[in-house]
Here is the input.
Amino acid sequence: MDEYIDMRALLEGVDIFDVSLWLCGLLLILVLIGVRVAFAAAFVGIVGLCVFFMQRQGFDRGLVTALKLAGQVPHSKSSGYALSLIPTFIVIGYLAYYAGLTRTLFEAAKRWVGWVPGGLGVSTVFATAGFAAVSGASVATSAVFARIAIPEMLRLNYDKAFAAGVVAAGGTLASLIPPSAILVIYAIIVEESVGKLLLAGFLPGFVSALIYAGLVIGLAKWKKNLGPPVTGYTWGERFASLPGAMPIMFVIFIIIFSIYYRGEDGAWATPTEAGALGAFVVLVMALWKGMKWRELKGALMEAAKLTAMIFAMIWGVLIFVRFLGFAQLPDVFANFIGGLEYSPYLILLAILLVYVVLGMFMDAIGMLILTLPVTFPAIIALNGGPDVTREASAFGMTAEECAIWFGIIVVKMAELCLITPPIGLNCFVVAGVAKDSKLPISVQDVFRGASPFFVADVVTVAVLIAFPGIVLWLPSLI
Amino acid sequence: ATEWNVSVWGQRRAFTEHIHYLADAVAEATDGEFTMNISYGGLSNNRENLDGISIGAFEMAQFCAGYHPDKNRAITVLELPFMDVRNLDEEVAVSHAVYAHPAVAEEMAQWNARMLMTSPMPQYNLVGTGEPRDEIAEMDGMRVRATGGLGELFSAMGAVPTSVTSSEAYSAMEGGTVDTVAFAQHAHLSFRTIDIADWWTENLNPGTVNCPVVVNIDAYEALSDEHREILDAAVDDAIDYYLENYGELLARWDAVLEERGVERITIADEQLAQMAEAAAPIHAAWIEEMNAAGLPAQDLYDLVGATLQEVRSGN
Amino acid sequence: MSSSNVLSDDSLLSRIDRAVLRVEAALNLIGGATIIMLVLLAVWNVVGRKLFNAPVPGYVDWISQFMILFAFLGLSYCQREGGHIRMDIVVMRLKGRPLWFAEFLSVLFMLILTTGLIYGSWHHFLRSFDWDMALYSRDSSIDIGLPLWPAKLVVPAAFTLLWVRLVLQLWGYGRGLVQGGDAPVAVPLPEDPMEQALHEAETVSGHDER
Ligand code: NA
Ligand code: NA
Here is the structure.
């Protein structure tokens, strides 16, 4: 083939960095014309690898090298131990749903806080925050509450975009409030204590939920037709709703206990195992509550389908990321940031803006995997290096505190990308569940409804930057 | 101009300094005609660097034998427990002697790889929490994070090898999932297991991992004679630089222990002798298994001993 | 499973579609069962360690092997059900032949990609497999040396099933393109807004009650 098409000559002088920018554009086009996202990313990644290797090895060998290299990624990336948390957390969500646990949580939230303006929206926020304490995946949380909260809000004539938006945004709380898959992934990438990061997420998750609730109330007061409050519950009915939410509390207790309780023989489980313990408890409860084989099978079918979808996203994006690695896009970015001579907070802001832009197109895990090798050392250096004292540092914290603080901020940013167009996993999943439940809600509706929460998230990030104590207080206790 | 991509993992550290030295030396000697891009994780997973070399995705890579013993059976002799390698110089000598064995070259050639140099690692001593375990009897029931042959060895002492990833080692030890972790010093530092340790075994010296740097054979042969000579010539200097640099880290180690209040544990000679005895069946089993795999196992095994003798008589 | 809005009839295509679906659904269920198995393994590991000081030997290695099952066994089923996420901002505005053309094109991209991935992942398997070695292994796990080839073989196998599914969908959309109309069989159809509205009431009272 090389005699007919001399790829090396053809590609001579083509700058691979330019190619990577062009391919980012191609990815956008493929996604816009409706190619499944995971496959569009993988396709563009392979095209990039082909250009890279054909330039060096000619057509035949370049093609073979590119395909063999891309063909490693699905197995290699899907067998990473830390990712084993993801299906566990998804299955918790589905089992809890099929066992009716999430409905009781939503019901309790409705009775206690439903009376405020936009009451079902606020209830959704607090129910997702509560559920976040048993679910480690934002996407799964959104999927579960899309089934429960959206139909109820639609029945009370809530604005359909708002109803979908609050569920998509509420789901993102699952990644801050432990257990959290993405915090574990962050901890593993930057080699920081998983336990401390999970602890650090508690208060920011709670603050984030409060800010969401404030936003919903504000919106409901401002736009009268957004959705009515739900009133008329007696105190008796309120307290009656609490026992129904107890199983969730028990699971929360099990997870927290097994990670944090230190007997003379140490903690019960690693954070990874604690997620599985939580799932086991929910499974037993579901069976005890009379879950039938047909329902268990349904839950497993759904969980497996969603798991396959998320893993396809992971390996698909990572094939693209592998190409970016060869094109050295991350290095170029590092040099760029390293060369800036502005205030550390301005550079932090710039990095966060890059996350906003990247987050529009990428999924949270792919984005973190791609960027952290670059941004994390940059942030640590910005703070004053790995051995800096609080007094001498730029952000007033040690390197370890900086790692935890930046982790929570960056995870919040990554969560943000789950609700921004054009690619926002939570919005897709909400739209998918809505479609599944035959509700008239399009992806565009979900994005529109989620857009105010983007503003709330920006406020949350600003609060966390201004008051790092919110992040660092709990981990400082152990 | 020749440009090589080099795949390593993690962050730049003592363990990768010789590769940076090599890249700089080669670029300088060729006036920038032959350069290397060193990528930390951008080109491959750490467990798939040999695959990448085999595919021709990059020209040079580092890997550790214990990550995937079946990919590199021959050099796993260097990871057997209690081989009595006493310092990094000896580790370099035995590694390079084994790398030069035709059976190793042949096995690497199946991956289109050629051994360039080693990345010598000190012995994987234990750090632990709680009461010091300086006798075999005290290792009974000890939950230890140690992989492969080391795990087998501790298992023979009655310990319980407990499976956690190296990046999970810190939180596993912090939470009590394991009581002890076996790493080289730099890994105890970078995975921060030393930060929560109460003690460190200074003379257990149970064994270590072996991590070669390899080059893609096609790329190596495609170099001009001049460039190839420059590359080969730079290896010894790179290793010297590595040893000097790692030596500084080891010198700091005492200060690290003191700073963190970590007790040094010395294990009595007769206890060590018992452990070495327990390692003998593991050695025998290795020889049998590798023979079955068609490797000159006894030959490789004896080569390690002979090289050690040679080094020691030379000093 | 109720999510499927794939039509069927007596045509050869539809019969093949349903036959393949049976395989896909069974594999997807195995994937789901693997998640439960992983949960049980973790419980065994924790309880074994805590109560008997006997954790599962090579726990991390085993988990890494099992992960491949739930990551890939549902891949093709997910495509059959239209479960892989995408932006339908453009597609939803199309109807009839233009729509089937867009879908055809989109599946064609996936088919080309999948063909490449079968080749690549098959070679990834081949590099870990050796007829002459114990357990046929030329690549093994870090902790207890499990052979990796079985897990690596799952990947090209799953891609091959996906390949078959994509060919069926190309056939289905191709038929839609040739015959026109708005309801070709054996492919996931976009939901008609009227139909959605009709289903709404029954969904709110029915499906979410559990
Ligand atoms: Na959570
Ligand atoms: Na986004």
In short: The pocket of sodium ion (ligand 2) is lined by residues A 359-360, 417, 420, 423-424 (CB under 6 Å). Chain A has 21 helices and no strands. Chain A has a mean pLDDT of 83. Chain A touches chain B through 35 residues (CB under 8 Å).
